[in-house]
Give the backbone structure.
Amino acid sequence: MTFPADFDYYIKMINKILPIYIVLLLGSLSLFSCSEPDEADILNQRIDSLVSAIEKHDEKGIKEFLSKDFSAKEGLNKTQFFLFARYHFKRNKNVVITIIDKEVRLNKEQADVTAKVLLIGASEWLPERGQFYKVASRWQKESGDWVMSRLIWEVDGKKN
């Protein structure tokens, strides 16, 4: 079988052009794979970071996740909430929080998060206290970050 004289020319052109197409294809694919995480992922990361700050008793870190107008159950403002938290931090040297069945409902600038939470506390290494809570929180955007503006919790379905 013989090939036309132009065949070598076409092969050389393909060898020159093909790498350009491959680079363009890989470049466009990488743009799609580098898309920003969606708001639900960002909010979930913020919640995980808040849980970590609570487990470390890091009040300064916790404050970063609370809005300027934060309120908790029974009308606790931010200052009163931290008094409540300090009491429990002194009582529980070790705190472990496990989030179960979390549901996030997002709007443009706010989100409602509900979850069942297991909170375990201990003055030393062995757990001494543990309780399941139903937790509801409202998150809003402040300066581009998700912060919690409201927190409500119930023990075993009864308001605490």
About this structure: The first helix runs from residue 6 to 33.
